[in-house]
Predict the structure of MrfA-like Zn-binding domain-containing protein.
Amino acid sequence: MADPLPESVDDMLHDEHELLDPLGDAEAGVVKNRAKVGSARPSSLLYTYGPGAIMDLPNFSIMPAGLSDWEPIWKRRDHIPSIFEPRLLKVVRLHLGEQVDALRPFPWQPKRMGMSNEGSDLGIPARVFPQWFRCTGCDYLGPLPRFSYANTHPFRPDLAQFTHKNCPGRGGKSKKKSGSPAVPAQHLLTCANGHLDEFPYSLWVHRGRKCSKANLPDLKMRDANVGKSVGSIIGCVSCGRSRGMAEAQGSVGREKLPQECRGRHPHLNAFDNKCDARPALIMMGASNLWFASTQSIIVMPRTDAEEKEALAARLRVELGVEQVEQFGNQLDVIKALAGAKNIDLDGLTNADIAAAVAAVIAPADSEEERQEKRAAWDPVDLLVPEWRYLQKPALFPQQQNSSGLMVTEMRRDPDLHPRISRIVAVNQMKKVNAVLGFTRLDEMDRVNDLIGRLVKLTRDGKPTWVPATEDRGEGIFLQLDLDAVASWEQRLLSTSLWSAHRAAHRRNFERRFSETAKNVDPDVRLPAPRYWLLHTLSHALIREMAMSSGYGAASLTERIYGWAASPQREAAAGLLICTTASDSEGTLGGLVALSEPDRLRGLVVSALRRAARCSSDPVCAMRTPSDPEDFLHGAACHCCSFASETSCEKANRFLDRRLLLNLPTATGETVPGFFGSPDAL
């Protein structure tokens, strides 16, 4: 990851047309130090440190830039790689617009030799953020240009740091010519519309006015861990005024902050014209500072229609719409151009190619039509094709290896619990993940009533491509008896336990911090009981499989297929536990080996027996939310059911062991556990 440094704060804040090119000055012969300052795995850049997030480096923090700034990096290559997956690209275009024509991997290239410079001209551009620093030697608080930057060792990016030259020290007597290290100031302002800005320290300490002694006063940030003044205290050296940051916290402190948001997007180096949201204080390391909005699919063997969509997508990306329009009536020319781009047309008739050309040049849906389709779209739509394919074992021997999916219907052990109806070993799989954008303060999967809450990835808000990753791995699919699940679900709906969960879910939404939460009907977001059942079972199996598969629990992820029947889709009740890796070889087979009948039977029994007990029982086993509580789980905690963020698709929400097994309740009510009594396992 490369880090360009601005000439001044004004250049950073207001030059909306400046594109970051980390090596641009070096190529022009101008000597500037813009070396790489860190690295991250593709999965980390997708889910944790994407554009707009703050990434902590050893000595300062950076923010990956928006997609507009990635273009100079891509232009270093004659060919820009793309991930062609029509099913996922269609969803991205539905959300972000018809102009999106490609899914691109991150600009990264592995080195063949340890000391090689191969791939050194690739990387993700980033900006230093926050741009206010505090000197660790004298507590001076100031903007970026007041500090010196050093990053001279080409193979030690961890040594890059900012220093306060000629730091006088806290007593003013121990002046350091080499300077003292500086660290980022941790207070920021954000709003529900996803804007992020520096905290106005000078205005804060002077209570909204200018300093009476100086136009640009020097500030100090001191820690005060005494009495009630926990936190930092900002002091003005010129006029002597001071004010604690504790005053800015909470709803009362929010009233003391600026009432208007400036609409700043640091990752885009731009400001929005108007923002009607109220800014709030947020700390640099807060967990709700950045939430990725992503969609992922497991690549399935394509139907004929999907193959034609894939061809149209490749022609659109590789040849461009203008070139396809120009030669659309000359199929021989189209074939020649496709061959030059290594687009495989073998086995396709002229009619197939003409249909793909027509799809490329066909007029896009109007904005109104796209909005209607997006309003009707359900994330479950991405899971339905996968569920349907897994229901057709007759297709498994005819697998198309080009899809990267190889699955095997496994023999079911006769002693396996009868309510587990099928086992499918996923020997090989390919998972594609794409970024739609991000939100702040609230996750999009919980409050997605306003698509405008997605923070844009480019300055104009109309990206032509989005970052994506392509992972390979293995997994195990378990399917529950659909009739048994439907019968159990009807019984559970009438229990007081489910009523308590539904009421807690409503309270959770009503108390949401986000100003957009009032537009959401809580009941339409509450997963059905079968989802709670599958989710809790998945966590129990992940914990058990981690002890036998050779993979850590954080490396195992879940994919839940749990929804009731509707006019649009048939009912589903299954779960896929998988592990994937971003390298081309995939994983080692330790997980899929657990699908052998005897091993799986013992693993399921052991997982259910462990789920029957928790070291926090009876407190955990009897936990039921009641007014005013609004937590979204029942008999589940870190000791028995919670999984890591990388494993759980719902952030450890919607879990309850009482849905798995017959466990005691606080009211004495008998809650029907799907697998019955633990003693009968």
Summary: Confidence is low (pLDDT under 50) at residues 2-17. The two ends are 52 Å apart (CA to CA). The first strand starts at residue 55 and ends at 56.
